Amino acid sequence: MTVSDNSPGSTPAAEGSAPTPPPAPGYPPPPAYASPAGAAPSYPAPSGYAAPAYPQGTSSPQGYGYPSAPKTNTLAIVSLVSSLAALVILPFIGSLVGVITGHMSLSQIKRTGENGRGLALTGTIVGWVGLGFIVLGLLLFLLLLLPAIVVSGSTSYS
């Protein structure tokens, strides 16, 4: 059994619930809603509003919040990393991988609209520059080494 406060301005408390505080002067008392013990009260929807309609089979709202950004193309990252690694670790292989994956990622980005176009362009350009340096180095090596081989091979000791 609960003890009820019979002072003016208080409302009698239901069995098992907390007493309702008296209303502030000049304001109407809040409406009383009946809810099962331990359950959250359910409030009626305001007039003129309907519950949001979600697409069939979904239970969460779509289109709310911040839109997610398109993902970065993985081949663009591979192109840049391998082209930069070619400058330090594997000169020919890294540049070749950078050029091939760079061109592949540029075509994928154009088709799918992913992010990473700048990465792909940078990887492709650095890869081509690396291959150009390799070709120039080989030509320079052959131009300097070939005369030395020809001169040393034509000398005969008789």
UniProtKB/TrEMBL annotation:
Pfam families in the record, alphabetically?
Answer: DUF4190
Q: Which residues form the DUF4190 domain?
A: 75-136
- Compositionally biased spans, kind Pro residues: 19-33
Compositionally biased, Polar residues: which spans? 1-10
Q: Where is this region: Disordered?
A: 1-40
Answer whether the UniProt record assigns the keyword Membrane to this protein.
yes
Give the record's keywords alphabetically.
Membrane, Transmembrane, Transmembrane helix
Q: Which InterPro entries match?
A: DUF4190
- The transmembrane segments are 75-99, 119-150
- What is the official name of this protein in its record? DUF4190 domain-containing protein
Q: Which organism is it from?
A: Microbacterium aurantiacum
